[in-house]
Amino acid sequence: MNRGMKILFVxxxxxIHTTRWISQISDQGWDIHLFPSIDxxxxxxxxxxxxxxxxxxxxxxxxxxxxxxxxxxIPVPNNNWVxxxxxxxxxxxxxxxxxxxxxxxxxxxxxxIHSMEIQHAGYLTADVYQQFKSENPPPWIVSNWGSDIxxxxxxPDHVERINNVLxxxxxxxxxxxxxxxxxxxxxxxxxxxxxxPVAGGFDVKWMRSLKTKQGMFLCKQNQQxxxxxxxxxxxxxxxxxxxxxxxxxxxxxxxxxxxxxVIVYLPSEDVKMAVRLVSQSTGIEFxxxxxxxxxxxxxxxxGSARLSIGLSISDAISTSxxxxxxxxxFPIQSNTGSGDEWINDGENGILVEPNSPExxxxxxxxxxxxxxxxxxxxxxxxxxxxxxxDISVLKPKIIEIYENVAxxxx
Length: 410
Fold this sequence. Notes:
Radius of gyration: 22 Å
Strand order of the largest sheet: 4-3-2-1-5-6-7-8
Number of domains: 2
Shape: globular
Helix content: 40-55%
Number of strands: 14
Order of helices and strands: EHEEEHHEHEHEHEHEHEHEHEHEEHHH
Strand content: 15-25%
Number of helices: 14
CATH superfamily of the largest domain: Glycogen Phosphorylase B
């Protein structure tokens, strides 16, 4: 174990994915730093034993931050001062974030820099690396999140910048084989790290134990998936999410949904409005995720669901898909991600066209009438989770990545 290792993450400071990944190395005695890739002024409450390099921060907004988190930056009385300070910096130096990151790198002299996500963290780090070319910069790892190159790589405004990131970094991590090939097309010539979810491992045993706890969703112990009467619909409707298409598919299945409840989680306001209209016209029972839900409630929801629907026009491996698989819910997932690397279509899930309500409705009907299929899928998926997703499997691999990178560059 390399006790003296120093790692600088450039990543979204308020992201659960950032937090989950870093939490898996926070007990190694390493000196871990985080430079927020987006200057939002928020830190995820789950971060531990890390130094966060802000520009300005209002102390009162960090009351939920763990005492082990060290803040570096300019403390100010309140958010108004934060906004004024950032505005002043931008007016005097459009590149102040680049300059700030460069100063942090020079000050802490990390052994490894790891950019988690490309459109913000990767671009920002690449801009700094241009200025370090003659100074032998630390080895640079880039993690590809979601649609970072699969979708953005098709947009003219991003092609050159993605190429700049991938032709400059030393190591590349992604969560699907599809993106390995794409990275090489964008000029990556370094070392490809092991392919697994960018959020790291899941505590599968703990997650499945939630099904037996008293709570908002009580799923009886040993209950089969076919006995469940909940349908979960991810409520994202945006540049990628297609919740409204899923809602239309559910509407087309109204004739067989008597006795079922549809729970829409993470819904936007337009999705809520559409849900109310569909409920009025069909009589289907809907429920929205409550404002006080946390991650455990989302997991319990999947643990009480017969099927979980997640739709988008682009993704890598959807975390909600993996959570549904772990919790025994039959996944119906768009075929525009890398679900095919986890799902044998029609066996342990169904892959659908995200813009086709008819295709999705057909999948819903299959999952509602075929008890044997959904029960068998639950058995297959929990075995997959234990073999490929459990923290006991992935945490050692994550630690090994950093130890190998440090050793190769010592």
